[in-house]
Amino acid sequence: MIRVPELIERKRNGGELSDEEISELILGFTRGEIPDYQLAAWCMAVYFRGLNGRETHALTDAMIRSGETLALGSALGRRVVDKHSTGGVGDKTSLAVGPIVAACGVPLAKMSGRGLGHTGGTLDKLESIPGYRVELTLDELVEQVREVGLAIVGQTGDLVPADKKLYALRDVTATVDIVPLIASSIMSKKLAAGADAIVLDVKVGDGAFMKTLEDARILAEQMVDLGRRAGRDVVCLLSDMDQPLGHAVGHALEVREALETLAGRGPTDFTELVLHASARLLALSDLGVDVEEGRRRAEAAIAEGAATAAYERWIRAQGGDPDPDVLPTAPVVRPVVAEREGIVARLHALPIGIATLGLGGGRRTKDDAIDHAVGVVCHAKRGSAVAAGDVLAEVHARDDESAARAAETVRSAYVLGDEAPRGHGILLDVIE
User: Fold this and answer.
1) Consecutive sets of 10 residues in the chain, 432 residues long: mean pLDDT of each?
2) 170 is known as an active-site residue
3) Could you tell me the pTM of the whole model?
4) Which one, 16, 33, 172, 244, has the greatest CB density within 10 A?
5) Residue 250: exposure state from Cβ atoms within 10 A (0-12, 13-18, ≥19)
6) 428 inside domain
7) 84 is a catalytic site residue
8) Catalytic option among 11, 92, 189, 313
């Protein structure tokens, strides 16, 4: 039996732990044999001393072994792909990428989570669709991916229980924002879910967890390394989250925008990210295509209507109604107008997310209810020229009082200038 105080002391002093020691530590904690206070001390030691690549892989592997694992590729007899985002404001990318990839003949299976704070969860967006089932049995999941080519479901409690328990501890001990623990948390769930190839979208900027490109690269490199050590193909896209992605922020609003994008009428920045992610997933599949050909096939799936058809098959397969007219709508729509002529120099993502949270479109605690209808639509984005009185954004609210509060927060997100800001694309870098 390991002596936990010795492991804490060794890590505190900058030493290394063996694979076996890390495994016993994590599995013992998951079983309740090691108390919270000792793991909290170990997490703080890791916060200041870090983990090397081998230790991070050992931690990830132990977390995976704490519960069940899936082998979707073996069950389906072909490579299965997955996509994950680190979260941001208006990030509905999976809702468009999944149908495009499925329309191109590549199976995608994704286990998603719910949103907390100003970032929206994929499951919350999908639950704005009447009838959509987020819970499938393993047999139902495999059968749907086989028949439809796509399934997005909630994570089962039997998958990586160590991560849920460890994250809850990190959340109350100020040890969340340390890269090895972030990387192992994300990758343990992705690897346990059984995909053969994974595209990770690491958000960078004001509305993201990673505020700088340098920090995002460090996280991306660690996650790619974890994938390599586990024998999986992993590519990380680093994408801009200094402003909201697309125009729509809020669950039903984002579902509508994803559908518009599948029909070829989506916002430029969102469409570009969707095509980048789709092309990479197709290049990692068993189609035998490169990224350039993958993009051409993704564009064709949109242009020919195959992506929209795949979306409709997927939503119906999980009990939902794919008609956008059945999505909930907010009773109050309040415009936010420009007070002067100018060019949008900045559109801060975080205030838009906070405004949506205040409207009821997000959770302050994990038990909060969600209002799927509310949110913000940002008509003017960075670089847009506006005249005094032009509509910058619209607030979709449940009542006039909450709409007025949110409108002031949205107004604070906009910075108008006299010159166009220096532009850059949505994709900042690729780590593979």
Assistant:
1) 91 96 96 95 96 96 92 86 92 97 96 69 93 91 94 85 90 88 92 92 91 94 95 96 96 98 97 98 96 98 98 98 97 97 96 95 79 97 96 98 97 94 91 93
2) yes
3) 0.92
4) 244
5) buried
6) no
7) yes
8) 189
